[in-house]
Amino acid sequence: MQNIVPLKCPKCNNTSLFYKYGKTKDGYQKYLCRKCHHQFAPDKPSSKKTPKYPRCPVCGKASFLHHDYEYYSNYRCCDKKCNHSFFVPKPTAIPSTSMSKLVGKTNFKRMRYPVHIILSALSMFFLGKNSFRNISLILKTTFNVEVSHTTISNWCRKFAPLFHNISLELIPMLNFNSDEWHVDKTVVKIAGEKYYIWFVIDSETRFILGFHLTPYRDSRQAFALLNSVRNLGTPSAIVSDRYSAYKVPVKSLFGYSVKHIRVESFKNDISNNLIESFHHQFKAWYKAKQGFASFELANNLISMFVFFYNFVRPHSSLNGWTPAQVAGLNLTPKEKKKYLLVA
């Protein structure tokens, strides 16, 4: 018996001639099209499975797994005419950076000295080349407050998590969608051993987006660094030297929409001089400290240096602004006190 219902055959687009044709094993009503004899159950949820592998970003067709690696997978388009090869990262397999492993205090509770004395000592250490003994002398002369140089050393180390949490609160207010991000590494000594410190800096704001301290320099470390900053913004290009460890991380984490520029010194119009200039400033501060005694101490001190560089120190190349202000940070005096950006 014909049943007139608001249906449409998915095969021939018939909208009027149907028979009821029993039910599926799940209890959904089936219909039979009288024109093309196609059977269908319109109320049954779609059983289409999500594809196992991602679609080709060039032609949109299916792909297959070409090679599987520890931190990423290499897929290739099934269409032989396209034959496009692309990389997909494995976020859960990529290691975390050293800047996420800070150890210390997250507040100023149970401190013997006022907050403004602590902030003054930290500013003198991270914005200049003062030693702990010189800072102790300055505090005695200026504020008539006697503070041991050992206490000042502990302040510079233990408050790294506090200032890192402040930067995490402020970074969502900033804009890092710029022309270029520059990435490079330099060498530091920890207890006499060679370590590598990796930095990513935004070309327009001079903001240090992230760092990673490690005893190795390989693709794993480049993956960790770039994965930690990939959600902060979208640059047009990432500039690096010709070290091969950057190639796959940039392609897999940022895709082909972000250009990877591998420069060669004195031979390219685009150079990596911006981050090399930052390395000179970092090394000037680092050499005054005569190396670091431990990995934990080095990681905490570098984190504090990056915070003061981004949010506190005015730059002459930025017309006396801080990189955070150039990136769009505009706080009231009350908010600055809340975030400890003024003493």
Automatic annotation (TrEMBL):
Q: Where is the Integrase catalytic domain?
A: 168-331
One term of GO molecular function: DNA binding
Q: Which Pfam families match?
A: DDE_Tnp_IS240 (PF13610), Zn_ribbon_InsA (PF03811)
Q: Where do transmembrane segments lie in this chain?
A: none
Keywords tagged on the record: DNA recombination, DNA-binding, Transposition
Q: Which domain of life is it from?
A: Bacteria
- One GO BP annotation here? DNA integration
Q: What InterPro entries does the annotation carry?
A: DDE_dom (IPR032874), InsA_N_dom_Znf (IPR003220), Integrase_cat-core (IPR001584), IS_Transposase (IPR052183), RNaseH-like_sf (IPR012337), RNaseH_sf (IPR036397), Transpos_IS6 (IPR047930)
Q: What does this protein do?
A: Involved in the transposition of the insertion sequence.
According to UniProt, the name of this protein is Integrase catalytic region
Q: Which organism is it from?
A: Thermoanaerobacter italicus (strain DSM 9252 / Ab9)
